[in-house]
């Protein structure tokens, strides 16, 4: 039976992030307590930057389901989702299907702003849709006085009773958050004058993980002493490994992901590598401590500093006792700096991996100071790098602002829905009026790319272009093009071109693999994929199972129902699409054969004709039937629809007679 969620916080603009609170271990009589927790934590979250800046675009809903028993324990009891609290303070459930069942019942999900969704979004469209990963979170609020928070990222087969660990819905819902109501209960320790701020900071850190950041904290076990160079790079915006930035022994600052946020005067000079001064010196005065850390501060004011993890001189190869250095003393506070550096320790590892700043919400969410007979929780701010990442994630592409144009970031998928887009309308007008020189002799991707490039450069005045290093003996595309990219240097181009070698080498791009032009639009956050997804598990050549998501085909009728201006990627058939995908994700050892009978193409959808048949723009025209000519044998269709935008330049009036 459909259940309408309670709106905890309504987004004034179309929501770019959806948070759902669920109740665990709250009895029917505790409903008010749950409601109060959700409301007050949400308000406190919006006092933490950059969530404060995205308040208009974050939608928070809650759904109450009563438990027979209050709270959770080491063994599952009679609660809604059967969570347990382990001795290691982990909140886990062996029955996540209970969450999935409830989420599937939710409708309608508030989308924010003035936009209406028809049909309305259901819980599964938002919280069980792989295309929306990173833009939504399920947070199970557990009635428990102890501080406990667990973001479950994966399940092993032994950790689950129902459903199986390879269940489609479960893997799409992961990661999900479970957090206790610490420190808001009378039994919580310590007692705070601002308990909801403390809880909100815990939530903020976990939302950071959901949005693609990694913890900057360190674990104490031997396996986390040094980052294993054989492991893949963390591929997160707030960590970098030593191996990734070192060239012939020296740090190449250009390889640091946050180099563009470091002052140019510092990056122009060599990176200064320093040891963190010993953590405590017995009998030291505050002034002596200040003097001990001053050289680090001074180096940071002129150079980028690589600050090695503090070590205990008596046991330099085991730093496990020194993982929780806080930067609050007179001396250490000097190292807090808006300009990011390279601080050793993060992602659980103590050495050979660097974070941008000494302190950040992603490392410690807060610290306490006495306030009367209670404590006051001081929330540690996000570092500059994490702040920028979250701003991007929560507000859409901030650089996508040209002459006032702003893209309104929509859903990550728009399967089954055509949303109006001023950007799409302007593209259609441009295609219809633009003369493409020599279009008849172009390949179709060439014509599509020409229209994209020139629209972005000439209509949107887009200046962020990259020269495509295109080298081939038989160029089917000019090898020196100023390609307007929005994200990731030329990753967008590689996705558009289905360039299998770079895509295979960059795991973080696999979710865009074989989506071609449509995937590039989604990667750039300019639009959403119109196809539905399905999760697949297949064995690699060594027999290891590989999980990946594939899109389902669009019918001709489904293409005809899209917003005109949508970008299409065509493949000869589903097998070819899947084999490109399988090669990139490692299921197939060799790439599939591409020839005249096994090909991919890209086009613009231009709207249905009078009989409802989809028409397209390519080298043959700007209103030709999709299911005709060389296009007819291309039976597998992928589409991306543009997000809406405001302040799109108007179509010029036609010149008078
Ligand atoms: Zn950070």
Report what the structure shows.
There is one protein chain. This protein has 657 residues and is an alpha+beta fold. It folds into 3 domains: 6-210, 3-Layer(aba) Sandwich (Collagenase (Catalytic Domain)), CATH 3.40.390; 222-359, no CATH class; 419-644, no CATH class. 23% of the residues lie in helices and 21% in strands. It contains 16 helices and 30 strands. The strands form 9 sheets. Strands 1-3-2-6-8-7 form a 6-stranded mixed sheet, with helices on one face. Helix 1 (31-45) crosses helix 5. It is globular, with a radius of gyration of 26 Å. The N and C termini lie far apart (63 Å). Residues 397-403 have low confidence and may be disordered.
Compact description:
With 657 residues, the protein is α+β, with helices and mostly antiparallel strands. The protein folds into 3 domains: 6-210, Collagenase (Catalytic Domain), CATH 3.40.390; 222-359, no CATH class; 419-644, no CATH class. Helix 1 packs across helix 5.
Low-confidence stretches at least 5 residues in length (pLDDT < 50)? 397-403
> Over the alpha carbons, how many angstroms does the gyration radius reach?
26 Å
Apparent shape: globular
Mean pLDDT, as a whole number?
Answer: 89
Please describe the topology of this protein.
Blueprint: E1 6-9, E2 17-24, H1 31-45, E3 58-63, E4 83-85, E5 91-93, H2 97-105, H3 123-127, E6 136-142, E7 149-152, H4 168-173, E8 176-180, H5 195-210, E9 240-241, H6 242-245, E10 246-247, E11 250-251, H7 264-267, E12 272-275, H8 286-302, E13 305-308, E14 342-346, E15 349-355, E16 366-371, E17 374-379, H9 384-395, E18 401-402, E19 405-408, H10 422-433, H11 444-459, E20 465-467, E21 482-484, H12 491-496, H13 500-505, H14 516-523, E22 527-529, E23 533-539, E24 545-551, H15 556-560, E25 567-571, H16 574-585, E26 600-608, E27 614-618, E28 621-625, E29 636-642, E30 644-646
Parallel strand pairs: 2-3, 2-6, 6-8, 12-13, 13-14
Antiparallel strand pairs: 1-3, 4-5, 7-8, 9-15, 10-11, 14-15, 16-17, 18-19, 19-30, 20-21, 22-29, 23-24, 25-26, 25-29, 26-27, 27-28
Residues 216, 238, 356-357, 360, 362, 382-383, 385-386 line the site of zinc ion (ZN).
